[in-house]
């Protein structure tokens, strides 16, 4: 059986959760845009005594479907696609039934486009793990996992959530229909009279004087402003105290929208439960990559390590098993499945099959690979060393830039953010504050607006300069100079305790055993900005790898007592801001002042 090595999983493109949600977000934005277009361009509905605005159940279904789209999209895209199709069909039927209130033809085409977009996004396959993972899956051994004796009911939590949603939707729909039926019977037996409007207690209430009554009565309406004081309106009056405008009869159809929303969420939960069950059963129904690994299993927690894992290195993946395993040490086992986040895996260890409760997650949450290994930099030689201090693997060195791998200790390497992306962030960072000020402040004279916008844009430019635009790190074979987010230092390599990087691109250069040091930002592994905006900027892993490689070579030269004539890189003196940054600040200040000066009406 093929052993699983660290090099096998190196270079896999594991997308974060936000990339999986991008398709749902696209549907949400499209649904909100379609709803906004309907509000803006649909003919208005006018209520009158001749054509009253009675209950419209189909219209309530329409509102429920379009309200469910943004919510259901984050639970199940297939159900979202069918909801969009239902919205388009119901809208077409409603327009045929109400030709005088039909939407423009182009807006109906937009509804159809939303349906097509929803089905396309639902059918799009999620991004794969890259060519390295495909090559590994094609060359490794495959075997069908042992079938568990008791197959669990996956997706039970989603089903339990769907039950109250579905029951609630049914109860709301039934109560709305029963209440509307009773109200219709009361209105049918009511007396129609003409009343005079005497006041507007609030925007949804009319105060009217009925014939033969000394005290006025109050009636709830859709918009009180449509009935001015002194106007005469037709009112239905029942003996049991019912007062209702003839043009606006009692209407409970709006509750049906809530019922449709609940039913859509219930359907999405059931679909999510089915997807989870199908994915779990597929793990045991077909042949899977079978590899030798090391396993740490305690209770229901299972961590998987490569067979060449070194003490201090993190686990590849981690999942929770249905059965509990009593061992508290790392043992050899067999992994069935792909060791990547959001993939389903099972492990056989000590003759026992550990069936997963759900898909695997990142191994960074699991304990590091253990085992005593002497480390001269640690007080206790038996303590597990820090992974950030381990030598780089060959595959990690190959992932670095060629110029960073160059062995010449005299070469000075420099890291800085891509200027284009830095200026883009500077320009965009002040917009939220200025929009808030535009909504809150009264219209200001132009130079008064300049006095308000100048400090806001100055803070944005200063922050962008300190964090993104100025050079951050320079290093060679002797040491490095660092301009961190806060502070700057000139260090020899023996002063650097560890260099760490997270998946967001933040690189921490630690100068003691307690984690203190300087933080330098780089491009994340899966940055939100497109690659062309970041240019050839190093990622956080590339920068930390280059620094660790330089530190390893410096330590090797020190052990061999090789005395290279190497001077430290230039001292970390922050250079002055360029003229372009000052021009950006001035242009932003003058242009944004137009916003506060009333160029755009509030």
Automatic annotation (TrEMBL):
- InterPro entries in alphabetical order: CFP-6_PH (IPR019692)
Every copy of the Low molecular weight protein antigen 6 PH domain together lies at 470-536
Annotated keywords: Membrane, Transmembrane, Transmembrane helix
Source species, domain of life: Bacteria
Asked if the Swiss-Prot or TrEMBL record annotates the protein with the keyword Ubl conjugation, the reply is: no
Sequence intervals crossing the membrane: 24-41, 61-85, 156-178, 252-271, 420-440, 446-468, 473-492, 579-600
**What protein does this entry describe?**
PH domain-containing protein
Annotated organism of origin: Dactylosporangium vinaceum
